[in-house]
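Progress report, Aim 2. The chain analyzed during this reporting quarter is listed below.
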Amino acid sequence: MRERILIVDDEAPVAGLLEHALRHEGYDVAKAADGMDAMNRLQSFKPDVVIMDIMMPRLDGVQTTRLLRRNRNYAETVIIALSARTDDAARDAMRDAGANLYMRKPFTIARLVERVRELLDARAKTGP
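Predicted structure tokens for the chain:
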């Protein structure tokens, strides 16, 4: 079974670009427009990786990451935070919430795909 990635980003062009690139790499991809949408998507799509924007309406990336980490079904899901915020406070908040990695926008698709692979490989070695 292909690994599943959930993209959580309120910027449709960014989410679409990520979806296209990750599908091209062979991943099964779903999108959510914000944290609330992501929590609803989890009912039918159990991701191996969540790529999470931080600044979103309704439920932001920090809050959504905390909710995922509190749920035993998603406690080991890889979470990659993406943000245009360059301050250390945003990075620290996501790490404290449980994100595995923090990447600043702009980023390259190649680097993101590389990091997804690295994190999935590391998880496979240690077990979910």
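The longest strand covers residues 78-83. The chain has five helices and five strands. These observations will guide the mutagenesis work planned for the next reporting period.
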